[in-house]
Structures are given as C-alpha cells and as structure tokens.
From TrEMBL, chains A, B, C, D, E, F:
Pfam families: Mn_catalase. Belongs to the manganese catalase family. It comes from the Bacteria. This is Manganese catalase family protein. Residues 260-274 have a biased composition (Basic and acidic residues). Residues 229-274 are annotated as: Disordered.
Length: 274, 274, 274, 274, 274, 274
C-alpha cells in the first residue's frame, strides 16, 4: 500500500522559466527510460516476485522512490513553463527570439496541459507499457534494471550541459546520484544471483534441450569484420567455455511452402508444390 | 551492405501443423524481446558506433545473424499454419476440438496474412521501435543487449515445454544455444568496458555535477521492508563505496505553483498564489 | 513524496487458480480505464494544479490510493495464475478442458511474465499515456475523472458476474465501493466549481470570441431523427438559454485549394486554380 | 447511412499562410480531444445504443456534425500551408525568420502530406482509437462526452489567443459556440438520466455486491493534506450519504506468492514458500 | 458537410448470435484495411486535393460511402453479440462449448463495450491513423487506394467461408461487390493519370536529380535467386527502358564515424578517429 | 540467411553538419514509407510466399537491398549530427541562429541517441509494424509495394529541394533511381499477375458470393459532386463491365438493437425493444 506526503523529496525549482528546456525534460518523465518507466518496471517486478521476499521488498522500495522522482520532474516542468510568453506566439514571425521559443517548445504544454507536465517524451510521444520489463526471472530483470539506470543517468548527464540554470542543475545532481546508487544496487544483486545460478539466464534449462555445439561460436564476416580481434574473444567465455570464431554458413535447404487452401485466396501457385 | 541466400541457417520444419502454437511463436518474432528487436537493436547500435570499430563490427555481425533468426521463425510459423482447418471455424460451436483451435489461434493468421507470419507479438500487437535501445554509449547498450538475450532465452525455454513437436524443439535448441553465446559475448564485452571505465555509466560525469552524498544510500521502508537484509548491502558497492541504509525523508517544502496566465484558461485560483 | 508498506490495503486472494479469468482482470489494471489510468491521471493533474491547493491535495490523496489498487489487482492476477497447467498446453488439442484454458488465457502470462501481471489490457495491448487527461482546468478534468470512475465501476460490475470465486468477488466488492466514493467526490467537486464558474468550460472565454448565434442550436436530421423529442430539448439549457432545433445547412462555399508549388511534387492540376 | 455535400458548414479561410500555426491546429483534428475523437466517439456510441432510440439519434446527429468539423479544420490547415516557403528551408541557418518557420512547422506537412492536413496531433502522433469511449452505458458515456467537449473547447480557447488571423478566429468562434451547445446537451442528458437512475454508475449493482462500509470514506493524508477542508466534504455526498474522513490503513497482510513451476524458469526461490 | 439518415444502406442482420465471429468481424472495422481506414484515407485525400476537383469529389463521395460501411459492420457486430451467454463464463471450465466461446470471443466486447462494436481489429488493437495515406499526389495515393480495396476484399473473402450464417453472408456479398467497384474505379483513375504523367511517381523529378545509371538494374543474388527468370525481366520496363540484371556490389568504403563530443557521454573511443 | 559486409552500397557523406536536416531525414528511415517499412514488408512477404518461388526470390532480393538503404540513411543522419553545437542550446534564447537549430532538431538525437540515427519518423514517432503489408496474395501485395515505392520516391523528391548539401543530394540521387527501378519491377509484376488472374483481387471469389448488381455502380452526390464527369466513368471498367452512376439510397430499415442482459449494466431501456 502507498502513502504520499505533500513535501518533495528534493528541491525542484528553476532559476527562470524556460519552456524550450521544459520540452527536453519531458524525456526524463515519459521517455523510454524516464522515471515512469523505472517506477512501473520495479513495481510490476515486485508484485510478481515469487519466493524471494527480500528482493521483492527492494523492488517495492525503489519503485516507490521513482514515483517521487516523477513528482520532482513534473514540478520542474510546471515551473519551467511559468511566466514565459507561450501564448503570444503570433509575434514569432517577426521576433526571432520568440520564434525560437515557439519552435522549440512542445505545443501541447500550452494547448493541452495548460502549462503542466505531460506523461510523454521529449517529442510528445505518449509513454507506453511496452517500455517495461517484468519477467518473473530476477536475474534477467535486474539486467533490465541496470540498463534502465544506465540509460537514465546518461540522459541526465547529456541534459546537464544543455542548461545554465542552477536550480535545474541542482535537481539533476540529485538524480545523477540516485542513478549511481541504483546502478550499484542492481549490479550487486546481479553478482549475488550469478554466484548462485551462473551467468546464463535461465540457469534451469536442461543441457539436453540445447544444441550446445552452437553455444560458443562467434559468427563473424571473416572478410571485413574486425570483431574477432576483440581481446576477450581469445579468452574463456563468462560461462567458462572457450569461444570459437566461424564464418556463418547455411545448414538447411531453401524452404518451399505449400500453396494455401482455396479459402485463403492466396495467389494461385505458378510453381509445383513441394 | 547486406546479402541474402535462399538456404536457411538451420532447420525449421515442424512435425505437424499447430495453428495454436503458431500464435505463441509470434512472441519470438515480434514481441518486445523477439528477433525483430535484437536485429534492429544491434544494427542501429552498430550504425551509431563512434570510435570503436571492432565493437561496431561485432554489432553488425550479430544483428545480421538475428535477421536470419526472424527468417527461421517466420518459416516455422508459416509451416505450423499449413494443413489445419483454420477456415472451417463455423464448426467450432459444436466441435470442441475445432473450438479449441479457433479460440487459441490468432485470427489474423487466417484473415490478414493468408497463413503467413506476422510482425506482431503473441497477442497480435504490432512490433514497434520503442522496444529498442541505441544510445551511443556502448557500456549502457551492452547492458541492454545482455538483458534482451536473457529475456529472449527465457521465453524460448518457457515455450520449449509447451509443445511436443520435435521439429519445433530442434529449432528451439538452436535458438537456446545462440542466446547462450550472445549472453556470453555481451557479458564479456561489458567486463572489458567496465575494466576501462568503471561500473557506473556514464563514466565521464565530473564529480562536481553529482550530489555524491546521495550516491550510496539504500532508501528502504525500515518498518516493513526486509531489503536491507540482502547480503550485499553490508559490503562495498560495485564502485567501491560503502552503502548506507536510510529511511527516506522529504528534503524540500510542499510545492505551490503560480496560477496560470488568463490565456491558459485554467481553473480560477481559489487560493493565494505563492 | 511517496511511501510504501508491505501490507495490502485489502484482501486479494482467490479461492482457486483461473488463468482465463486472470486475462480478463488485466482490463482493470492496464485497460483504458484501469487503475494505471486513474492513478496516473490524478497524479499528473495534482502535479499541475495551480492556485487550488485543496484540490491538489485531493488529487494526490486519491491518486496514491489508486496505486494501491494496481497492487491489489496485480496480486490477484499473480495468484489466479498459480497452480494451473499453463505450461502443458500441448495436451490441448486432445483435451477440450485444457484447450479452453489455452484458448482463453493470455499467452504472455506464461511466456513473457512467468505467471505475473502485465501492464496491459485484457487483449494484451500495452497501457499508454494517451488514455489520461491533465489539462490544468479542474472543472474539465473532474469531468474526465467522474467519467473514468463511471467506466471503471461499470467494468468491475460486468466482471463480477463472470466469476464464482468468492475471493475475487470480495476484492471486487471493495473496488465497487471505492468507485462509488470516487464518483461521489468528483461529482461534489464539479458541483462546487460549477457554482463558481457556471457549467460551460472554460468559463473565461470572452463573449466576443464566440459566435453565440450557434451556441444553442440542436442540429438534427429532421426527417429521420427523433432526437428533438428528448424531454430536455424544450427546456432551458444548463447555461440558462433556450435550445432551438434546426436542420443543419451549409453556410459556406465549396472549398478549392490552390495547386501546390512544384517542390511539393503533387499531382499536376487538371483544373484551373481558384 | 451518410451523405456529403461539397459546401462547407462554415467559413474556413485564413487571411494569410502560417505553417507554424498549421502544426498547432492539428491538435484540434487528431489530438486526444480533436474532432476525430468526438466524431468517432459519438458514432460508435450511437451504433451500440440499446433500447434508447432518441439518444441513439442524438448521438448520430452530433457525430455527423463532428465529421463536418474535421472537414473545416482540414481545410484550414491546407490553406495555412499554402504560399509559405516551406520547401526552402536550407536558408534557415542564415535567416532566423525562415529558421523560426522551419523549427516550428511539422516536417510531415511538407514531406509526407504535400501541404495537406494529417490525422495526427500537434506533435505528429497519429490519432488512435484508444482515445474514444463507447461502453453501452449512456450515463457513463455522456460523462465522457461532456469531458471531451470541455477539453475541446478549452483547447480552442487557448489557441484563439495564439493567432492574430481573423479568418482563423472566425472559424474558432464557430467551434467555441458548437462546443458550448454540445456541453449543454450532454449536461442536460446527464441530468435526465441521473433523475432516473441516480448519480452512481452503473445504477444496477445490487447492494450486496458492494462493501458499502467503504463507499463514503475520503481517504486522506491527515498530516499534510488539506483535502478534507473542501467545503463539500462536510455535506452529504451526491448520492445522499454522509462522507467520513479517514487516514488510509492497511487491512490485509503482506502478500507472499508461491514459487512458480519449474517450466516458468523463474528465479529459484531463496525464501520458503507460504 | 455531412448528413446522416437513420436507415442503413444495406441489410445487416445475422441469423443467430455468434460472439466468436463478432471478434473476427472487427478486422473489417478497425483493422489495418478495415472500413475506418478507407473512410479516413479517402476523406483526408479529398480534403488535401489541389487542382483536381473531380477527383476531390470522387474521394469525398467514396469516403462517405465507407462511413456507411463502418455503420453496417458495427451493427452486425452488435447483433452477433446479442443473446449469447457471454457473462456466464465461469461455466467454461466444465462446459467445453461455453469454453470455446469464452476462448474465442473478445473480452472487451463484454467488459468494455457492453455488447457493442469496438474501433479495434480482430486482436483488440486500436485503430490508428498510421494506417492511412494522404500524400497530395493522386497517382501515388490511388495506388494506396487500390491496395486498400484489394486487401479489404481479400479479407472479406476469407471470412466468407468461416461462417454459415446467411445474414452475415448477405452483408458480405454487398461488401465484396462494392470492393469490386472500388478496385475498378481506382484502377481506371490510375490508368487516366498514368496516361498523362507516365508510370513513375512523381513524374516531376528533373532527370539531373536522378542517378539514372541505377534506375533499371535488378539486383539479385545470382547464386541462389531465381528472380531473374521472371518473364518480364527480359522485356522493357513499364517506363520503356530495358532492365539489366546484376549481382549487388558495394560502391563505397566502410564508414567510420567521428567520436562524439564529451557532452555526448558516449563510450570513449578505443580506435583512432577518421 | 543474411550476410553483411562493412562497405556501403553507395556514398553517404554530407558536405557539412546539419542537425535540423537530420531530423527530416528520419522520415526516410522510420516513417510510414521509410526504408524500415519496405525492408520488413518485402521480407515478410517473401517468407510467406506459397507456390511462387521466383517471386519469393524477388522479394527476398529486394528486401535485402532495402536493409542496405536503412544503413545508408542511418550513416547519413549520424554524419549530419557530427560537429554541430547541439549540446550548447542554453545559448539559444539569445542567439537566434542557435535557436533555429535548437527548435528544428530532434531533441532525442542529442539526449537519447548520442548523435546517432533513430528508428523513428521525422516527428520522433517510433516505427511500428502496423505500417507493413503481407497478405499471402501477391497481386494485392504488389499493389502495396508499388504504393510504398511511390510514396517513398515522392518523399525523397520533396526533401531534395530542402537542402543544398551536395553529399546529401548525391545519396538522394541514388535513392530516386532505386525507387524508379522498384516501381518498374512491381508494375511489371502486377501486369504479369493481372494477365493471369484479372484485375479484381482476389480472383478466386465465386460469382455467387457477390451481389454483382452493386459491383459497377459509382455512387455519387448527384447535386454537388462532379465525379461522374471523369472521363473513364463513361468507359468500360478495368474488369470489362460498364459503370453506372447512381445517387446513393438506403436499402434497409433503421436498425434497433435489443436491450442488453442485466449483467451488461447498460443504460436501462427507455424505449420498447424490437
């Protein structure tokens, strides 16, 4: 169960309005790796965790924090939109400064949201649940999580140098720090699970299910690709087996499908069926 | 530049038609972690790689292999749809066996695709590019890649026990093996890059950008959460710093936004502005 | 800022597994009017509220409750998926009971989520932020809210008679009650705001902006439509003006667009431009 | 059945081209609450109406009018795109006025549509049917309708002050008026249905289905939220019952899910199952 | 401007309820090539037509007819859903006939739409405007139109043999006929435009823009592909030029991108930049 | 099976960076008719072809070429993004030139992709598989293909005059040429199939399925529409039958649906059921 208190977890107040930057900050709210994604990803993983209560709790704790990060960024966007001439855009054709604002801001901030944040990315594309991962396998999902925190921290770092506003940078310094912690925690959890299960997910596949003769071949275009020169190729793979390098070849014939039944109304066959 | 040859990389021929299983196999083609996702993810990462040509080549080699995996699965789906009574579904109300087929198959296989595969998932949702990741930062992206291969192998493993068809299982044994290799290669590449850059992405954030006092705190509900009992919490974090455990608290005031300008036509304020 | 505790707000335990019903319950989680929608709708409205702090607080209080409702339903779905033979579907062709389960369940519950809930609707379509409304105008948004709670309660009521499971019905009895309260609260808030602003949103449009001669005409097909017989048509409109009934007519000429410039490469014009 | 005549319902001719404003007008065509939404919403509601023929007719009459409104706006967009230098954008880097146009216009107007309107919103996101509501319950749906007309009129009002073009303003004055009428008609219809059924949708839920002890509690964070000070909280709810105010509490235990079967290949359980 | 009359253009009444077939009929309403697509495609093309008023009128006439086809199919779906035991699905586990209905029907028909049609496809995916084409070039768009009518008629033909219901077949016989006419009319219009402009769209590209040495080469895998044996390869192309057959080769070097600036926080380059 | 070589099929190097044009080029990669669409469309058509091996090979050959075209454009976008001041956008408010760049570029190129291409269109909307067509009927699908190549070539032609960069124009000259070839090949293939099957798809519909009395009527608004004056209306249709012109009329009664069962919780009927 969830609770909310009116105060914010951290400061979220820009020095000055900047509707153009508000558009960019949307990526951190409703983008593929925005805070909506990590919040929902951790919560759905937590709700589905079976037989690992401490990790369930970690997921719920962290997902709840991320809800608060959406709040911080939504507040920042609302304040970046305050006090700028966003409804006087008819002047833009003659005033290039206003024109730059007009061109660079998200029109929905003015038309749809009345100067509030939107659950969309920096191009105005709505967030969707196809972004998130909750598989029931914690090692797989923690790899998704460390990726999400890596992409998220990368995006904050890029935005950091795109503004001079000290209030914005103060909030970003907090988000950078929290993303450091979250990368740390998922990396530590991965190490913990890999120690128990080994590095290949899922660890529970019986060996007779797998065509293991293909499990350690690096297929590479031996004529133009330099991939086989990577240093780790000549070392044992993370699961302990040596890697071999091969040029990919076909191992099966050219497939020929049978003509469909007449009810399919496919093109009539010109060729003889198989 | 790409080339194609008519032969398949591996066998892809079921023992018998099974339109219901064909619907499920679609997850491996057009689902969030299907072969369309890994193919496009690796290719777009390769096309954007700057200053690391060997990794660019590895990405292009691997992405090209994945295109061939789409081909294997599309061929399997087309053959699972051959020869079953999918256009005689009016009999379903009285014949429960036909009814089960009818209920379990994807109607678009019959109506839209004429017994061919679809670029959609097991529920018929079209694949979209919001599934893929290409950030320009290889360590971040290789984490996305090892996640994708983990989720993908997990899904193949689950489907393996949902069929008795030896031809399907033969193809799955190949896919399980290749996903083992791909997990191995991305894990090895991650180890290589982490050795150079450290574990926190991006490695290039200047320390003065980050509020480092928050970089190693595990925020947890100290009353009901057991997360702090995880073994790694009492050890140094992957980046070498000790982790501290804290109950989350608010560090800023309750935010109050200013009323919008009259052109926003927001609700008139009942309260005094800030 | 948000907090989470491990205990649930209400009971969420079915008497028996039912993977087919689990698919249907997804509508209440990730459908257009599922709990993800109301949670995110209220939170984004709250974060954007300007000059009406009590309503901001109401929105945050209610949105937080809805997060707990997602939790209740995600837990219910996970438990409905426990203990049923969902990975033995190859038997379905010969066993119609298993076939019915196979046909009726969501394949992603087995393949993608490992028996956990999904942030998607009852057909497996991912939730997206295009479902939610946050306009900055509270009267407009409260109308969206009472609609959302009406649609949501309607869907729970329909599902109620589609199961015999007492545990499921117990949870539904709680959701029906909470939706009653939420309809009540948004209706009361609407009445409050309409008393101040009048019924037409936004109340702040200057009269000279509006072609008021068209503001109270019911356009109807006077030959076949019976709409004008509705009792309220002969009474004053909610804003106090009388309604008139008219057959719609054209008031402007047939438009003719100018041919595009040559750089548009549109079809060459056969007709004379305007 | 539908008929079309070449003449327009109202004037739709701007004084001058303005490709930047054309982008913004798209919100009224293909946005969440654009004319495509209300047209399709009313028509699908009408086609599904059971046992209320006058309301069916009202829905069909109104939906048909909205089709004509798409036409008015599509014509306006096409004319706003006429005669501006949209294909000479290479000059933008040196000419800030052209640069402002370039930055602010929708590139698809030039590249994809050849200076015609698009069925998309002001950010270029395609309209989708997830925006519309047709539930079979008229009271629920009329609440959706009055919301749609409120959001729509709000957006027109905001756009009104973002242009000086008298031709555009003339069309907007007509749309403002029609949205006034449509808010009036749905409000009157809601009043009519509430008089018969009461305010809580659906009215047909038997009392024994509902945990009525929770039907009139306002859950609020009693420490920081001011929601309970709203004037209507101390008055009877719209359905006549008194409202009580409570701090939310948990009423059920911490859920523990059982480990999945081995075929799920979930993480192996570290904890004891329930 | 549009008008509507209550009567239907054609009969739309099934002999008996069939909720499973109702799900399939949705493909013809809200699928990629359903009636929503052709209606919106023709209307948007019409509204954007510049300098070809007769074709504008043809598009508006035909688009208006398609609106009536949505109506016919929505009515059919609503009637296929009448009188079947769709809300008694708890019996499905023991009664395989009800189980088949349960598995095969669209759950949203019962839960979301109250036995009405939905603006979605046969898998429940919402219609979206990314399906439609309106380019401003009539020859291009008429090719889209003849494709849409071909795909649409193909789908009706496939569905025709999937039911025994005479009422459904009567409606389908009308749709087959109208799709015949619409294929005829777009084919005739294409022939008309090709006679004026030639077969290659757009006809207005100056020859010096095009690398014409590549305009008539069929690139084919000369080792395994039989494509060059197609009869028309040895004949002049539709634009009059002879076709040559070549094995594709690379004509440019391996690209090497420059490392990004430090603000991009991309991976540090291991290789020397170009 | 697919192979890749590091060299490019053609040159792809701009003279100078231009992040604003990079945004526009995205339409050719991830737009509705971008190279991702034609690549995936041809490959899925090829994988589903039944009984026409030469056409299967043609589809695979051409689809493979299109993969190389994505590569050319992704390389072009990455190079257009090199060396421009995209991370110094805080200067935009005072420097209109930088402001124009800021307003006109895609923010995700800087924030999400680190100066690489994106699998999205020119507005940042992700590519999705709802754009592509693979029906199993080759004549239908070749009509889709000639449309795709027509729309694609049209878009390249429009972009051609929107830049002065000779490197970009060189790549476009190659794409224009290849689109000429592809239009030629699909037109030739259509002619080949029409000669065998006739012009109406599918050719296999038995005449008794079709209400042929409606197969050659042009329905037109005889009062305002000029469509019947098109020259081909008075000539035989492409399938050889004469066309007649009629004003559309209703041929069936006004439909009245039965009230829903009580479990539907629809609005209670005011009217008498049918």
């Amino acid at each position: 169960m969830f609770f909310h208190t009116g105060e914010l977890q951290y400061h979220s107040k820009p020095d000055a309005p900047d509707p153009v930057f508000a558009k960019k900050v949307q990526e951190l709210i409703g983008g593929q790796f925005g805070e909506m994604s990590v919040a929902m990803q951790y919560l759905f993983q937590g709700w589905s965790t079976r037989g690992n209560e401490k990790y369930r709790d970690l997921l719920m704790d962290t997902g709840t924090q991320e809800l608060g990060h959406i709040e911080l960024l939504a507040t920042m966007v609302a304040r970046l939109l305050e006090g700028a001439p966003v409804y006087e855009q008819e002047k833009a054709a003659s005033d290039p400064i206003v024109g730059a604002i007009m061109g660079g801001m998200n029109p929905q901030h003015a038309i749809v949201h009345g100067l509030g944040a939107s659950p969309k990315d920096s191009n105005g594309v709505p967030w969707n649940a196809g972004y998130i991962v909750a598989s029931g396998n914690l090692l797989a999902d923690f790899r998704a999580n460390v990726n999400a925190e890596s992409q998220g921290r990368l995006q904050v770092a890029r935005l950091y140098s795109m503004t001079d506003d000290r209030g914005v940078k103060d909030l970003f310094s907090f988000l950078l720090a929290r993303d450091t912690m979250h990368q740390n925690q998922w990396l530590a959890a991965i190490k913990d699970l890999e120690a128990k299960e080994g590095p290949i997910v899922p660890s529970t596949v019986p060996p007779e299910w797998e065509a293991t003769q293909f499990s350690h071949i690096l297929y590479t275009n031996t004529e133009t690709s330099t991939a086989s020169q990577l240093p780790w190729v000549s070392q044992p793979a993370p699961d302990g087996h040596p890697i071999t390098v091969e040029k990919p070849v076909t191992m099966s014939e050219k497939p020929v499908l049978k003509p469909g039944p007449k009810e399919a109304h496919d093109t009539l066959p010109m060729d003889k069926p198989e």
